[in-house]
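Quick one, T. Sequence first:
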Amino acid sequence: MQVLNALKTGAALLAFTAVSFGAACAFQAEVLPGTLPTQNSAIAATRLHQIFDDEWQRTLTENPTQASQLGDRRYNKLWPDTSLNAIRASQAKTRDVLAAARAIDKSRFSDDDKLNFRLFEYQYEADVNEQRFQLHLLPVNQRGGLQDEDSITDVLQFNTIQDYEDWIARLKAFPLYTARTMALMRQGITEKIVHPKIVMQRVPGQIRKQLVDQPQDSPYYKPFRAFAVELTDLEKARLRQEAKSAIESCILPSYRAFLEFVEKEYLPACFDDVGCWQRPDGQNVYSELARRFTTTNLTPQQIHDIGLAEVKRIRGEMEVIRKEVGFEGSFAEFLVHLRTDRQFYYDTSEELLQAYKDCCDRIEPNLPKLFLKLPKTSYDVRSIPDQMAPDTTTAYYRVPAADGSRLGSYFVNLYRPETRPKFEIDALSLHESVPGHHLQIALSMELTDIPEFRRYGGYTAFVEGWALYTEKLGTELGLYRDPYSRFGQLTFEMWRAVRLVVDTGMHSLKWSRQEAIDFFADNSSKAMLDIENEIDRYISWPGQALAYKIGELKIKGLRSRSEQQLGSNFDVREFHDVVLRNGAVPLDVLDELVSEWIATNRRPQ
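Structure tokens:
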């Protein structure tokens, strides 16, 4: 799942106060650098929220494609400025704005603004800490990047002639975007901040799918095949001709240059092994990423050990189901049976897609049993685009437009349906649609009393931990009606437990890719295609996969504590409301919020 990574950057310094408050100019010379004079509550709140507002606008300005995805059309002609100068300037602003926010008198904040500031500081401090690792030098991997930028056409609104004009302008700007991306990757070669060969070997094939013989066959031409707005025949002909010309003169040459660069320059410079430990200061890089993605101070070794314990526990529950269905062979033979017996698979992509839709239809009516509030925005179920499906994972979720003009989308992988078991559909749908990603993210986006960086941003441990937690709600929502679908739920839980072991194994403990694949295959019924794609995802995205299980364990533990301490006063709908009503937060903050709720609702002794 991808969520807008809000607030990577900031707007500047104490001089901000001189712009917003005329009196500031008079006192700035009288205070120590980095401090502000005594402030009343109104001034402190105004300064803080002005920073939030300015920073959100800078986020959109510096990330124009993300702005487009949210429905903000102001930047629809632009690609991100990925030049090193722009990135370094943005990083400097982030450092300055963190100092400016910290200089405000926090004792003057309301309780709500204390939480707002805490989350803002948490995000910015993490961004500043990561700057030294130069992760911006890795703009492309096998799961996305320059080779997949046409996918934005699926979220853009083409309701006016200007929308088409803007897209043509974006096409014409593509060569500069390509050149800047290659410059970043060349700098990565110099700094030895590159991806392993095994994952980047997938990219040339993805680029080649963009190299069509006729411009009108390009995915970038998609908006011009059928116009969504009333135009004259002359206007349609002009726009189509300009689009073809831009694709022929800008898009196709850019991809030819990019293909040559990847094959001749980048791939030879990539690492032969698979772990983050190969980069400069790689062990510290990975430790920082583990902290960022889990919002904890757990070390890679501690996370590895948690993973091993969870794998052992889940394996025991799987063995119970193996015996329940009367399978006579070993656990390993049972996994082979589940991967290969045709009764567990659909024959066609159409049947598989319909099964996902039917599952979502079964979930929806039961949601009020567990939730006080449901999102106003709906979602649809779609197939992952063909050019990316062979190299990506089982499913993902795309957020709705902020203005309500586009639904959320649950994307499912229909490539080779004979490898995608029926018994995984329930758990996967709970995770990606409702009550998982769509319910949580859409509710967060609909909050009106928190700053935009909280509405549209998030913390992976919370977002993915919540979605994994909801997989276990299937029984309460009328799913998992047979032992195989219950095994599917355990398969997905095992998948996330295995991640803790193999991600830390490869990036910190120097496991090989094959060791990671073998460990995964030995403990899961997932198809080998999925296992290999998953392992390659962890290789190119160190630390991210740790968030799911760590977050789920925290939420599950908080529910257990609430049930124990509240007894008959426990209401699962209220618990879910407490977890969700502040948007995504770090796990320690979530613990505090739930603890306050328990204290308020505990029956007097």
